[in-house]
């Protein structure tokens, strides 16, 4: 998440990767204020519990993106007057042994009290590296992000068995050009063998959003 070069748009970029047939057989759908995963071919989906979810949603002038069910949980929390962190309390990493996929969540607010620039918050919940089944939780917030740049969290840091969880601070990344240029740049950067779908959302400072989606597969009706 970050700021467009024009200084007038917030940008959120979210992509999904897949190694197994179950994870590969997905596309992004768009409906009003949400971007969601759905089966490209329902016959190839063996377990939808962790791969079918709302990836992007918005409420009032809050814009949420995540890699799982916490998208809805955060929207519900904000609707009830809870904070970003308070809304995510009680969540743990995903129960997909042996990888135990981290839950990554981002939020942008355009009207946080006392905040002149858009507020950006990132949260990651991962299996503890030193304490059994417990969680390590990290929160990062940015009062201001420079034009043409954003910060990035990913679930993993490369291949392996099990897959190694993301560690360290969010990565500083370029956000260059309009919505089509940003989508093309990141889609071409992703591993061609494992990339599945990508969504880019441009959000004007007035709160109006537009979405560009690239899907590797076509949905089978």
Describe the protein.
The structure is a single chain. By secondary structure, this protein is mainly beta. 14% of the residues lie in helices and 38% in strands. It has helices at residues 21-24, 70-79, 84-88, 179-189; strands at 2-3, 9-17, 26-31, 34-39, 54-59, 62-66, 103-109, 119-127, 135-142, 149-152, 171-174, 195-204, 209-215. The strands form three sheets. Strands 3-4-5-6-7-8-9 form a seven-stranded antiparallel beta sheet. The protein has a four-stranded antiparallel beta sheet with strand order 1-2-12-13, with helices on one face. A hairpin with a 7-residue loop joins strand 8 (119-127) and strand 9 (135-142). The mean pLDDT is 94.
Unreliable sequence segments: none
Query: What separation lies between the terminal Cα atoms?
Result: 33 Å
Describe the global form: globular
What is the beta-strand fraction?
35-45%
Tally the helices: what do you get?
A: 4
In the sheet with the most strands, the strands line up as 3-4-5-6-7-8-9
> Level of helix content?
10-25%
Radius of gyration: 17 Å
Helix and strand succession?
EEHEEEEHHEEEEEHEE
Q: How many extended strands?
A: 13
Give the rounded overall mean pLDDT. Answer: 94
Largest sheet, strands/sense/barrel: 7 strands, antiparallel
Structural class: mainly beta
